[in-house]
Design brief:
The complex is a heterodimer of chains A (287) and B (366).
Chain A lengths: L8 H26 L1 E3 L5 E3 L3 H8 L1 H31 L6 H14 L2 H11 L6 H9 L10 H29 L3 H9 L4 H29 L3 H6 L11 H11 L3 H31 L1
Chain B lengths: L3 E8 L13 E8 L4 E5 L6 H9 L6 E6 L2 E2 L5 H4 L1 E4 L11 H11 L4 H15 L14 H13 L6 E5 L7 H18 L2 E6 L2 H7 L2 E6 L2 E6 L1 H6 L4 H6 L6 E4 L1 E3 L2 E4 L2 E3 L13 E5 L4 E4 L3 E10 L4 E7 L2 E7 L9 E6 L5 E4 L2 E2 L14
Parallel strand pairs in B: 3-8, 3-9, 6-7, 7-8
Antiparallel strand pairs in B: 1-2, 1-4, 4-5, 9-10, 11-15, 12-13, 13-14, 15-21, 16-20, 17-18, 17-20, 18-19, 21-22
Helix pairs in contact in B: 3-4, 3-5
The chains are: A mainly alpha (287), B alpha+beta (366).
């Protein structure tokens, strides 16, 4: 038996320290809050799992969670097919490739709160470009501060505008990696365009698409800044997504215990869905 | 199955070719007879893949026509030409099973499942992949993947021609042999016209009945492996085929005889046509021997390549290789070289200019 050299662990220590300070320790304080009640002055009372029970049984949480899943579902069902379609219609070589790539990347470079502000102004009924056009030129009543449907249409459209590019760029990277011989062989085999997509392009894009969907799921499930700037969760509670509700409880009502319990549940759901999705998508590759 | 005729074919990748050098293919006229095994041999960039893609229909030629059994197919897309092509890197449909891969070309053409099943089983049996039929194609080894892509070509019973574009490039050396003999066997069984593109002379010479040698977008010679070896029509064929290649020695013509390094060299027969241009003697190393008299030369290198020895000599400022068996002279020693007369050819501007002497010709050293 060869004795193994354990000194390599020392090289991992700096990373461990870093992760401890930026993730583990802050998270442990959340865990700490989630099982206690505090009235300030650093006085804590043990609460057990009461906060978790309270959150899991609250209608308010269920409603926010429902809205959150709805939002994520809507943007995925639009962004993924749309992103693939755009990637398929982009040129493979020549002058237009860099032009398309830069145009595609632009929305992603804009900071989140700026995107929210942009769309807020864009959709104002009296002075916004889109709002004015819809209300005063087409005669369609559109005001997202009054109408929940308008608010939903706006936040979904905004997210599609902001993030479809990510799906496009990742899909495009998958597409350009397919050698010409595959298309030539498919032509000779008499494959239809659909068959080329189904049996060549889609399988080759699978890995990058898995990552794209995973990233879009996590980002949209945790989204805060854009809808907060755009609608502030309204009108009423109609666009109050999980993170917005969480901030309201934590900083608005200063209910630190329930807020901490909610964060942990929220985190667990994100983690669980991501893990499930990734495991299912990569199941075939392992065999 | 069909006879394939290429008529006055020219192709340029530029939209407005000006000079001859703008053409990747320069004026090709060729007939491929039905059921033949052909090889297209040439160095990288000689236009052999371009020619292949024109036959398969992946590329439309700038000028000229392609006829299948006398029918013009120049403008037809690949799927309507009924051809099959096997690419350098195996193309398989990862998500399908081996069975579905083989069935794919038939199902795309709307054949009924009974026919599909019967054809797939027949081809699988021929390729010896029957036990893999239910497996996902993605997990196969490269040689099996290449077999499957060959199978997709052969599965259509009415295929006009099967083309191979350097199909053994990614295959391990010890499997190359197996796959190559499998190919030869397949050709005998299915009797389809096959065209095999390669830059490897061993592959070309073992697979094909007829080898088409290309250089710089032109067909230099078409012939059986023996013809290419014994009577190269061009100095290019001479040094491209054979290992080491043909010795090419610049010479002068004096009163109809070739003179190299002040020595008169006896040629195989009379010189044809006006020999005005650059004249060269061509002789294969296999027909150069060390003798007591003949062309004086100095040995510069001796390499033992197993069954025989290659003696590299220098004479008249040229390098001459001789293949000998048995004891080889020391490096630096002075020797005399003898050329076998019936294998000594004259080339004018690169092209063969001598005809064999009447009847058997004289055998013996010069």
């Amino acid at each position: 038996m060869k004795t193994e050299n354990q000194k390599a662990w020392f090289f991992v220590l700096p990373v461990l320290a870093l992760v401890a300070f930026n993730a583990l320790i802050p998270m442990m304080t959340v865990v700490n809050y989630s099982v206690q009640e505090t009235f300030g002055d650093n006085v804590f009372f043990w609460q057990g799992l009461d906060w978790f029970q309270q959150i899991l049984r609250s209608d308010r949480f269920h409603a926010a969670l429902g809205r959150q899943f709805m939002f994520t579902f809507l943007i995925l069902i639009i962004e993924v097919p749309l992103g693939i379609a755009i990637a398929l219609s982009m040129p493979r070589k020549g002058f237009w490739v860099p032009v398309c790539l830069v145009l595609m990347a632009l929305p992603m470079l804009i900071p989140w709160n700026v995107v929210g502000a942009m769309w807020n102004i864009f959709t104002l009924p009296d002075i916004g470009l889109l709002g004015y056009f819809l209300n005063h030129m087409l005669g369609i009543s559109y005001d997202m501060t009054q109408d929940p449907v308008a608010a939903w249409v706006t936040i979904v459209t905004m997210d599609v505008w902001h993030w479809t590019s990510l799906v496009v760029l990742l899909s495009y990277a998958g597409l350009v990696s397919i050698p010409d011989a595959y298309y030539q062989a498919a032509k000779i085999d008499g494959a239809s365009n659909w068959a080329v997509f189904r049996f060549i392009q889609l399988p080759k894009m699978k890995t990058v698409l898995t990552i794209a969907i995973l990233l879009r799921f996590m980002d949209s499930f945790n989204i805060y800044t854009e809808p907060f700037v755009l609608t502030g969760g309204g009108p009423g509670n109609s666009t109050t997504l999980l993170s917005i509700d969480l901030v309201k409880i934590a900083l608005g009502q200063f209910d630190l215990g329930p807020a901490a319990a909610m964060s942990l549940i929220y985190f667990a759901i994100t983690l669980l869905v991501s893990w499930l999705f990734y495991t299912l998508m990569t199941k075939d590759d392992l065999n | 199955m069909a006879k394939i005729t290429l008529s006055k074919l020219r192709h340029s990748y530029l939209s407005t070719p000006k000079s001859d050098s703008d053409y990747a293919l320069k004026e090709i006229d060729l007939d491929w007879t039905d059921g033949g095994a052909y090889a297209l041999l040439g160095p990288s960039g000689c236009g052999k893949s371009t020619l292949l893609n024109i036959i398969s229909g992946l590329l439309v030629p700038s000028e000229g026509q392609i006829l299948f059994d006398g029918q013009d197919v120049t403008a037809l897309p690949p799927d309507q030409r009924n051809i099959a092509q096997v690419f350098q890197f195996p193309v398989i449909y990862d998500t399908m099973t081996v069975y579905d891969n083989l069935a794919f070309p038939l199902r795309n053409r709307g054949r009924d499942e009974a026919t599909v099943h019967q054809r797939v089983m027949a081809i699988a049996e021929m390729l010896e992949v029957t036990e893999m039929l239910e497996q996902k194609a993605a997990g196969l080894s490269p040689d099996n993947k290449q077999k499957i892509s060959m199978g997709r070509g052969l599965v259509r019973e009415d295929v006009n021609v099967v083309m191979f574009d350097e199909p053994l490039t990614v295959i391990d050396p010890h499997l190359k042999w197996k796959l190559r003999s499998k190919l030869k066997e397949l050709h005998q069984r299915v009797k389809a016209t096959m065209i095999y593109v390669t830059h490897d002379q061993t592959e070309a010479l073992t697979f094909a009945d007829q080898v088409v040698v290309m250089q710089l977008g032109e067909v230099v010679q078409i012939g059986t492996p023996v013809e290419l070896f014994e009577r190269p029509a061009h100095t290019f064929v001479g040094h491209f085929i054979g290992s080491p290649g043909m010795n090419i020695l610049p010479c002068e013509l004096q009163h109809g005889a070739a003179v190299f390094a002040d020595q008169q060299i006896a040629l195989e027969g009379p010189i044809q046509g006006a020999a005005d241009g650059q004249t060269e003697i061509g002789i294969r190393p296999e027909f150069v021997s060390l003798a007591d008299h003949g062309l004086p030369a100095t040995v510069t290198k001796v390499s033992d390549i197993g069954r025989h020895t290659v003696v590299e000599c220098e004479a008249g400022g040229c390098r001459i290789n001789a293949v000998t068996e048995g004891a080889a002279p020391e490096k630096g020693s002075a020797v005399h070289l003898a050329f076998r007369q019936d294998m000594t050819r004259l080339y004018v501007d690169g092209w063969l200019a001598t005809a064999p002497a009447n009847a058997t010709g004289e055998q013996g050293a010069a």
